[in-house]
What we know:
Blueprint: E1 4-14, E2 19-30, E3 35-39, H1 46-53, E4 61-66, E5 69-70, E6 78-81, H2 93-97, H3 99-103, H4 109-121, H5 137-150, E7 155-159, H6 167-184, E8 187-191, H7 195-201, E9 204-209, E10 214-220, H8 223-226, H9 230-234, H10 237-255
Parallel strand pairs: 3-8, 3-9, 6-7, 7-8
Antiparallel strand pairs: 1-2, 1-4, 4-5, 9-10
Helix pairs in contact: 4-5, 5-6, 7-10
Protein name: ABC transporter ATP-binding protein
Keywords: ATP-binding, Nucleotide-binding, Transport
Domain ABC transporter: 4-235
Amino acid sequence: MSFLAIKDIHHTYFTKASATTALSEISLHVEEGEFISFLGPSGCGKTTLLSIIAGLIKPTQGTILLENKPITGLKNQIGYMLQQDYLFPWKTIEENILIGLKLSKQLNEQTKSAALDLLNQMGLKGIEKQLPKQLSGGMRQRAALVRTLATEPKLLMLDEPFSALDYQTKLKLEDLVSNTLDSFGKTAILVTHDIGEAIAMSDRVVLFSPSPGRIHKIFEMPEELRNISPFNARNHDAFSSIFQKIWKELDSLETGKN
């Protein structure tokens, strides 16, 4: 039994004047502890699929099972991290990271202590009483990750969480997020436009074709890359050849060449 089963997902957006099919015949199995990246041209339905997996959109057809149970009843077991941190500007960092626990009625002294300890592990010790505007973009994203992990979700959804950051901060956060998810044994799905990021962070890269979105090809990352940090993976001898292979496939999809 797969940890996450995506079965024959098809989704069409309807308006009064038209019907646009965003996804067609999407089936994929994800094992517990795996890190999967969704990569593809703009408009190939990556974020739509992420929203369906998270239970935010009901697909036109198909089912999503998490530990063999329908996703619709398990929304509180899924964490979401977005491009923007969405920290409440009028609340302190401590208040922000405890919001998920409070809303899910899990907030107690033990869970609060665990969240604050995780904040320290993220290199954010001593900023609990500060407001988001007092932090850098990278620090805010780290706080947002703590907020997401504090409720102990079984599945983590990452929708381009590093794309608004400068390159150096992005590389540091890739390592931090990867190491944190590994240490917690979390399963994660990343939507990205960055081929290098997908290779460096993932066990598998799922490449989508557009109009409608379909799984075009799945790339298994070699063990020598999976066992090292994203930063070191980018500097590994195998990285360049995999990058070129995926880039050529992506370019053929965008230019319409086969």
